[in-house]
Amino acid sequence: MTQETDLTGKILIAMPGMRDPRFARSVVLICAHSEDGAMGLVLNHPLPEIEFSDLLGQLGIDTDTRTRPVEVRYGGPVEPGRGFVLHQVGEAGDDTEGTLRIGPHLAMTTTRDILEDLAHGRGPGQAVLALGYAGWGPGQLEDEMLANGWLSGEGGDELIFGADNPGKWSAALKAQGVDPSLLSGAAGRA
Question: Which domain of life does the protein's organism represent (predicted)?
């Protein structure tokens, strides 16, 4: 894999012909991508029936008046019982064990420490909790992109942390200069 084909930190936007209903109209942030495969988190499928404070209680983490609201999302179909905190970070050098740096100001952490920090009003300025993740084996994501399953592009804080989940798919396409009304569900070759 070359530097040009590394999609880490990019977003994937499901094309209208996406065959997997779990990813229909999804926007996915790629957290890691290499020749061994890819891992990402769905950005626009909230789990409103699951409260962050309830999850903290299940983990034995006490909450108090400083506990910040953190949106809980469906991160993908792989390991749906596992949590991933997607969050802002400062400059390089403040990473801790269990943290994967995705970009200059974005990381994903899987440790209990970040949950305890969020429960007590500390920690990153913006964060979301994803349950599960999207995963692809070697070459699988590239094949899905060639089959017109995904469009890749740049994302921003509003796509990652924003609350307009129903509008993220269209917003992500528009940010890439694509009019969603002009897309077809059929793939073709010239």
Answer: Bacteria
Residue whose token pair is 């070359």? 2
Q: Which pair of tokens denotes residue 187?
A: 């793939």
Q: What residues contact 149, with CB distance under 8 A and at least 6 apart?
A: 14, 15, 17, 18, 19
Is the C-alpha dihedral spanning 135, 5, 10, 98 positive or negative?
positive
Domains of the chain are: 3-182 (3.40.1740.10)
3-state class (DSSP) for residue 134? strand
Beta-bridge partner residues of 18: none
3-state helix, strand, coil split of the chain in percent (to 5) is 25, 30, 45
Q: How far apart are the C-alpha atoms of 20 and 163, rounded to whole Å? A: 24
Per-residue pLDDT reduced to its tens digit, 48-90: 999 999 999 999 999 989 898 899 999 999 999 999 999 998 7
What is the reported pTM? 0.91
The percent of residues above 90 in pLDDT, for the chain, comes to 73
Nearest to 165 by CA among 82, 69, 46: 46
